[in-house]
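Exercise 7b. Backbone tokens:
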């Protein structure tokens, strides 16, 4: 088993403004469980098999006015099933070089192992503060065994049970005590969260690295390299953004349990993003996986753009106009989404894609005046009245109001709201999006029975 020497320093540009706390240890000591325990939510994939974590998974921990970034890393000395040991080691290197504090995690049940000792020696040349955390102290009878790990020479070890959340508050206090005033540093507010989703090997991690300006994610030709949903902060023109790299989605019938959890995390990332970038591989046909992702994005009502990656590889075999027509036919659910042809590996049109995403974010947060909204509603109704299958009176639309943004949410007050047909709802939504300048984003549209009261003054005047 080979363990990489971590003594090389000053190889990386550590740009994060909040202090960084890095978790390190041999495989299967519970590093991902520790990150989840300190974060108070399930962020890293936890599995009894060694080597599940490969990329650096990070989360910001807030406690009042104090804050730090916590990073989970792959196991030191890992033997990876896809031969990615060197890439995993590189990610560990970076996390340790940028760390202000290191949490050296060991397993109380395994005792003091040679690989633990090797990790302890590898950390020493870095000259950084280290807290030894002894995990899996699940019952009081194991507490006397914690002291043996003091022989690493990093001070008194702290007992922890990630499974039962024992020792969490004590560890957090120890972390903040070591970080001191640095934990009071405030990072720039995040302008936009951009989820990057797509099928396997579409180039998501390559794109995230291009945005971050560093090898933040492991890139490999092996499908399924990324397993977690990883938040990566990057900056443009003094503004901070978060790119959410997600695992490549595959057909459900081909999934194992790790694939299923990765798939679930990818779908969750769509819901927590401000804008979704659906990455399409220009070198392969649009697949059923791409279509299902499109439906998930629609269901989440997220602003979305189609980023056609690897455009440099198709050359004369495709033109932008022809490919746009092809996407419009195969991904009809996203016919409103803007399209950017790009090449993440060379950086071609990557900045253009960010600009388009920002434009979608701004559209999604636009609020329209009640007067302008109701003028648009009247014009749409004048061109086509609501219809219904039932006999009797037709529904009548009285006025509208915008009740929210991200996405823009419009409530139409009318009579016989339950009788309005679905095709009219779709018609009205399409026309309203055009009239209000929401041409590139989805909106939420609700037809609601009007209460027996006077109309709003601005609705009567316009």
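Sequence design result:
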């Amino acid at each position: 088993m080979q363990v990489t020497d971590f003594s090389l320093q000053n190889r990386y540009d550590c740009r994060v403004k909040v202090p960084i706390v890095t978790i390190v240890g041999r495989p299967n000591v519970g590093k991902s469980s520790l990150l989840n325990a300190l974060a108070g939510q399930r962020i890293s994939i936890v599995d009894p098999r060694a080597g599940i974590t490969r990329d650096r998974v990070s989360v910001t921990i807030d406690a009042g006015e104090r804050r730090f970034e916590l990073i989970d890393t792959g196991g030191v000395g890992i033997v990876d099933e896809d031969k990615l040991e060197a890439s995993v080691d590189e990610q560990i290197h970076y996390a340790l070089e940028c760390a202000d504090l290191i949490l050296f995690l060991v397993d109380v049940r395994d005792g003091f192992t040679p690989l633990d000792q090797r990790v302890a020696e590898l950390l020493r040349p870095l000259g950084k503060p280290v807290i030894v955390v002894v995990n899996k102290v699940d019952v009081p009878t194991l507490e006397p065994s914690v002291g043996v790990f003091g022989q690493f020479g990093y001070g008194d070890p702290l007992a922890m049970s990630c499974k039962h959340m024992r020792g969490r508050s004590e560890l957090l206090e120890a972390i903040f005590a070591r970080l001191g005033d640095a934990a009071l540093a405030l990072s720039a507010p995040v302008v936009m969260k951009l989820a990057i989703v797509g099928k396997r090997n579409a180039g998501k991690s390559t794109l995230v690295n291009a945005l971050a300006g560093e090898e933040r994610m492991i890139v490999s030709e092996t499908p399924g390299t990324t397993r977690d949903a990883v938040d990566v902060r990057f900056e443009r023109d003094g503004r901070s953004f978060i790119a959410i790299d997600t695992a490549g989605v595959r057909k459900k019938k081909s999934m194992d349990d790790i694939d299923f959890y990765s798939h679930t995390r990818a779908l969750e990332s769509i819901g927590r993003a401000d804008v979704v970038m659906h990455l399409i591989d220009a070198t392969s046909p649009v697949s059923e996986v791409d279509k299902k992702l499109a439906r998930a994005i629609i269901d989440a009502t997220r602003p979305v753009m189609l980023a056609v990656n690897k455009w440099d590889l198709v050359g004369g075999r495709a033109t932008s106009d022809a490919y746009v027509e092809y996407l419009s036919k195969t991904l009809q659910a996203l016919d409103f989404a803007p399209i950017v042809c790009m090449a993440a590996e060379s950086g071609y049109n990557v900045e253009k894609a960010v600009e388009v995403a920002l434009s979608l974010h701004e559209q999604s947060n636009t609020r329209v005046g009640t007067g302008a909204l109701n003028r648009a509603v009247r014009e749409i109704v004048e061109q086509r009245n609501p219809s219904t299958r039932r006999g009797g009176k037709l529904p009548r639309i009285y006025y509208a109001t915008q009740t929210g943004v991200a996405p823009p949410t419009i409530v139409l007050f009318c009579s016989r709201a339950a009788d309005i047909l679905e095709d009219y709802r779709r018609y009205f939504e399409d026309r309203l999006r055009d009239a209000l300048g929401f041409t590139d984003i989805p909106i939420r549209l609700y037809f609601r029975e009007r209460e027996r009261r006077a109309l709003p003054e601005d609705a009567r005047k316009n």
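Instructor comment: Residues 190-364 form a domain with the Rossmann fold fold (CATH 3.40.50.300). DSSP finds twelve helices and 15 strands in the chain.
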